[in-house]
Design a protein that fits this description.
Elements: E1 7-10, H1 19-29, E2 34-39, E3 44-49
Antiparallel strand pairs: 1-3, 2-3
Length: about 55
């Protein structure tokens, strides 16, 4: 399954830092609904477009 990735962030950021969630929030406010998922294979948080059902 292929999916567009809008941004990537390492999972080992400083405690209390949530850059992936902040980026998803910025994109959503700008009109591109986005969410964060975890890629366990690469140990990264990925910001992806929200799925439309």
């Amino acid at each position: 399954m292929s999916r567009e990735i809008l941004a990537r962030f390492p999972a080992g950021g400083p405690r209390g830092s949530r850059p992936a969630e902040e980026k998803a929030d910025q994109l959503t406010k700008a009109g591109t609904p986005a969410t964060v998922v975890m890629d366990l294979d690469s140990d990264r948080f990925l910001v992806v477009p929200e799925r439309v059902s």
